[in-house]
Each structure stands twice: as C-alpha cells, then as structure tokens.
Amino acid sequence: MQSVVLIGFMGAGKTSVGKALAARLGIPFVDTDALIERAAGRTIADIFAHDGEAAFRALETQTLAALDAASPAVYATGGGIVTRDENWPLLKRLGRVVHLHAAAEVLFERVRGESHRPLLKTAAPRETFNELFALREALYGQADLTVDTDGKAPAAIVDEIVRAVA
Ligand code: S3P
Questions:
Q1: Sign of the C-alpha dihedral, residues 91, 92, 96, 101?
Q2: How many H-runs (helices) and E-runs (strands) does the chain carry?
Q3: CA of 9 to the centre of ligand 1 (A)
Q4: Which residue of 8, 41, 44, 52 lies most exposed, with the fewest beta carbons within 10 A?
Q5: Does the predicted TM-score (pTM) go above 0.85?
Q6: Which residue minimizes the CA distance to atom 4 of ligand 1?
Q7: Which atom from ligand 1 is nearest to the alpha carbon of 81?
Q8: Over the stretch 29-42, which tens digit does the pLDDT of each residue have?
Q9: Mutate which of 19, 33, 99 to test ligand 1's pocket (most atoms within 8 Å of Cβ)?
Q10: Residue minimizing CA distance to atom 16 of ligand 1
Q11: Residue 12 DSSP code
C-alpha cells in the first residue's frame, strides 16, 4: 500500500483527517511536527522563538529525509513544509501527496485564536495570514490530489481520499 502525505495550511485538518484516514487504512499515523518536537526535545514554538524559522525548516527537511518510504503510513506535515523546493521530491518519494484545501476565511477563523502558531504572532496577524495563504496556495497545487474540505465532515474527506488512492 502507498503512503498518503497530507499537506495544507495550518488549520486545514491534516492531523484530524490523518488520524481518521490511518485508522481506516489500518496503517500508522505519523505527524512530522511531533517527530521534530520529539527529536529536539522542545516544542515548535520554542524552536521558532529561540532559533528562528530557518532553523525549524532545516529540522523539518532533515526529519522528512529520514522517513522510511518503504513503510506505509499516513503523514501529516507542517503547513510550511511546501516552501522549501528540496522538500518536494522528499514528499513525493513517500507516497501520494494530498492537499487538504479550505477557504481562507475558514482557516483564519480556526487559527486566529491559537497561541501556539508562531508564524501568526505578528502585529497584523490577518495580513500575515493573507500573505502566507497567497504564497502557499500555489505551492500546494503541486500535490497529486487536492481535496476541498469546506463543509465536509472528516469521514467524508476520508472517503474521498480512500477512493482516490485505492
Ligand atoms: C507551520 C505550521 C505548523 C508547524 C509550524 C510552521 C507553517 O504546522 O509546522 O508552526 O509554516 O505553516 P501545522 O500546519 O500542523 O499547524
């Protein structure tokens, strides 16, 4: 069985859909952010705050490169993993790359109040969000499949992915 690699913006549901999809397919769920935190022994917010985004991105690429493409799994990735060109072949070598798409309004409402989002800790979070969203939408388009999640229950999203990757 091929692995499924979920990409998409913060708040798109990669973790919740990923866990449900892994349970349905009977394969492990792996969260790359959790792997980074475990390996570093620190939270992502702490890595961003003390070492900066570039240091986090280097750890992210290192973590991605170390994943075993031979073991099927459902991977949930950090929203910014798509921003480094060198990550794309690493993502694609793992399996089918699936973009969970949601409208900007829906995503912003989900993430605006969350204190653990280091990238949105700016003087103007909405503007920051808009800039990131615009930049990243084009990058997410390189996925093998895009699933529109707006108005859909996690189970329906899982069904759609299972049908597409079967
Ligand atoms: C990030 C998203 C986060 C995490 C880090 C950076 C981003 O993951 O990797 O805070 O650049 O969008 P989620 O998308 O799981 O929130």
A1: positive
A2: 8, 5
A3: 8
A4: 41
A5: yes
A6: 78
A7: 11
A8: 999 999 999 999 99
A9: 33
A10: 10
A11: S
In one-letter notation, the amino acid at residue 47 is I
Provide residues with CB under 6 Å of ligand 1.
Answer: 10, 14, 33, 44, 78-80, 118-119
Greatest alpha-carbon span in the chain = 45
Whole-number Å distance between alpha carbons of 45 and 49: 6
Ligand 1 atom with least separation from CA of 117: 10
Q: What's the length of the chain?
A: 166
Give the pairing of strands 29-31 and 145-148: unpaired
With H, G, I as helix, E, B as strand and everything else as coil, classify residue 54.
helix
Give me the DSSP letters along 105-136: HHHHHHHTT-TT-GGG-SS-HHHHHHHHHHHH
Residue-wise pLDDT for 60-101, tens only, equals 999 999 999 999 999 999 999 999 999 999 999 999 999 999
